[in-house]
């Protein structure tokens, strides 16, 4: 079969299923979009995070990226295991990658002022690092989807029980001495504060994203593991489907996504959707949406191959695949670039160049939600350029 333009990225990584890479590209693009508005005071409600309980489309971005990370594990680690790679060698690679992700997160937290006294140890890439380390190591030992689902269920029930019934030191019992899921007085926030106090006392650094809690905190990483594990289960199903697209397991997986989505609303009645603490209902909600979205992309792209008859679809896919091929690079470019544009004053008035560009070009007649969104879209396009250059050179930056 003649090679089409959409096939070119797969000269680099032929083991991938296209729908996985497309979803990853869409996720990283949306992540940059919601992280970089022109004016935080003018942002459409769906592009904001929920303050506490509840959810918005923006709250789905980070979990979706972690879900996709889990999906890729059976293709990367699993394929190497199938070729006879020693588990010890793979484990060393998992540890190395986790340490690099953690190091990048520390560098992002320090840049550009390098104020070690207010260093935030917890962060997005730190959570990626911890979850990849734990879930990657577990995958080397367990690849049975039923066992993995059992582990997910046990963790989610345990996490709910901890927040509902575990006394909070110095505060009391949830639902008795303090409101259940109070945004400051809960066991998750208490652990975050205790960890931060420990770092400040012994290492003389420490900072929480919020004064009293951190959305990427210690205890809330436990249910975040489930997001990655559900991704691993999905990856195992899709890897098997690459050999037999009509396998019944694929349909069961898709129906399972619908079931998880419905179940999330049942769990929400007693453990509300909450990204800040990564509640069990929130894990199920995100997993259900991600599975349904990935299944739809899989059917359209990998099974029916609709891109072969539509130039518009091919173009959309190309943009998504290029962005997703170096997702960590795109994320780091966006974070470092944002700090440079907004934090370092370069204009005579003390403005950063990002603020000057926004006020001069996009919001010359006043800042509004549309102008703020337009700036964010332009920044996404700017961050796309390094990914495009790497893709043209057939370079995939592996950590």
UniProtKB/TrEMBL annotation:
Q: Which residues cross the membrane?
A: 21-40, 60-78, 90-111, 117-140, 147-166, 218-241, 253-271, 277-301, 313-333, 372-391
Q: Does the keyword Oxidoreductase apply?
A: no
Q: Which part of the chain is the Heparan-alpha-glucosaminide N-acetyltransferase catalytic domain?
A: 16-161
The record's listing under InterPro entries reads:
HGSNAT_cat (IPR012429)
- The name on file for this protein is DUF5009 domain-containing protein
Alphabetized, the UniProt keywords read: Membrane, Transmembrane, Transmembrane helix
Membrane recorded as keyword: yes
């Amino acid at each position: 079969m003649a090679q089409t333009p959409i096939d070119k990225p797969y000269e680099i990584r032929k083991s991938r299923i296209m729908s996985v890479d497309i979803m990853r590209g869409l996720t990283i693009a949306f992540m940059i979009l919601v992280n970089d508005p022109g004016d935080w005071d003018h942002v459409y409600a769906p592009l904001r995070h929920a303050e506490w309980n509840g959810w918005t489309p923006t709250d789905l971005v980070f979990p979706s990226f972690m879900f996709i990370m889990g999906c890729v594990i059976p293709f990367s680690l699993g394929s190497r295991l199938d070729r006879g790679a020693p588990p010890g060698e793979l484990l060393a690679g998992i540890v190395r990658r986790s340490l690099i992700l953690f190091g990048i997160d520390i560098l992002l937290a320090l840049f550009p002022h390098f104020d070690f006294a207010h260093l935030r140890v917890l962060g997005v890439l730190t959570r990626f690092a911890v979850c990849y380390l734990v879930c990657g190591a577990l995958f080397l030992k367990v690849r049975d989807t039923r066992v993995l689902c059992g582990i997910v269920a046990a963790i989610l029930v345990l996490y709910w029980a901890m927040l509902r019934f575990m006394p909070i030191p110095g505060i009391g019992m949830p639902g008795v001495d303090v409101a259940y899921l109070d945004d400051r007085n809960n066991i998750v926030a208490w652990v975050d504060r205790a960890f931060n106090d420990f770092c400040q006392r012994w290492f003389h650094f420490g900072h929480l994203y919020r004064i009293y809690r951190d959305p990427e905190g210690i205890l809330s990483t436990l249910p975040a593991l489930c997001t990655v594990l559900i991704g691993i289960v999905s990856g195992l199903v899709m890897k098997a489907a690459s050999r037999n697209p009509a396998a019944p397991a694929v349909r069961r997986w898709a129906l399972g996504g619908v079931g998880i989505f419905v179940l999330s609303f049942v769990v929400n009645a007693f453990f509300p959707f909450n990204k800040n603490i990564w509640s069990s209902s929130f894990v199920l909600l995100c997993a259900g949406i991600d599975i349904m979205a990935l299944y739809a992309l899989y059917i359209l792209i990998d099974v029916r191959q609709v891109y072969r008859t539509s130039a518009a679809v091919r173009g959309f896919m190309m943009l998504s695949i290029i962005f997703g091929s170096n997702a960590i690079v795109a994320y780091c470019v966006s974070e470092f670039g944002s700090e440079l544009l907004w934090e370092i004053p370069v204009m005579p008035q003390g403005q950063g160049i990002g603020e000057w560009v926004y006020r001069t070009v996009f919001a010359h007649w006043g800042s509004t939600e549309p102008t703020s969104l337009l700036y964010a879209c332009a920044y996404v396009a700017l961050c796309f350029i390094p990914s495009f250059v790497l893709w043209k050179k057939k370079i995939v930056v592996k950590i």
